[in-house]
Design goal:
This protein is an alpha/beta fold. It has one domain: Dehydroquinase, class II (Rossmann fold). Helix content is about 35%, strand content about 20%. The protein has 5 helices and 6 strands. Helix 2 packs parallel to helix 5.
């Protein structure tokens, strides 16, 4: 799933969502709430637009697609917001891609991963992200846009 808003003065934010996040709003509402991924894309795009950014929202269940999207952001985006889903806890490839492009990046998790199973407590991505937002529900995406709004020129 990909959606893109029209160009803006401050440039584009890449908003990346990883595996199974396409199921948002269909199952596990106690953990992930009832909003859908389209709702997340709309919310993030609206927050981006209010701050003068455009937004490209991409979801993929495939690690290599996420790596490709991060590479493509070099030269096209000014910042990255990433919820890599379960790849957060496994993917050296996504970590290396984020480090390689060197764009400001914010890691977002809808749930409070630290209140959940031990295997969710470690993120390969946090050390290469500028900020990490967990447990704020889908509001975390707006907080991530706000962080980039405040920290990007
Ligand atoms: O809390 C988050 O945002 C997570 O990144 C979500 C991932 C999970 O593996 C991470 O540990 C934390 C899982 C996304 C699965 O999304 C679903 C949504 C609705 C129904 C089923 C799965």
């Amino acid at each position: 799933m990909t959606s893109t808003t029209a160009g803006s003065a401050r440039g584009s934010l890449l908003i990346l969502n990883g595996p199974n996040l396409n199921l948002l709003g269909t199952r596990e509402p106690a953990i992930y709430g009832s909003a859908t991924l389209d709702d997340v894309a709309d919310l993030a795009a609206a927050a981006a637009a209010a701050a003068g950014f455009s937004a490209e929202c991409i979801q993929s269940n495939h690690e290599g697609d996420l790596v490709d999207a991060i590479h493509a952001a070099r030269g096209t985006a000014v910042g990255i917001i990433i919820n890599a889903g379960a790849y957060t806890h496994t993917s050296v490839a996504i970590r290396d891609a984020l480090a390689a492009v060197g764009l400001p990046a914010v890691e977002v998790h809808i749930s409070n991963v630290h209140r959940r199973e031990e295997f969710r407590h470690h993120s390969y991505l946090s050390p290469v992200c500028d900020a990490v937002i967990v447990g704020a529900g889908i509001h975390g995406y707006e907080l991530a846009v706000s962080y980039l709004d405040k920290t990007l020129a």
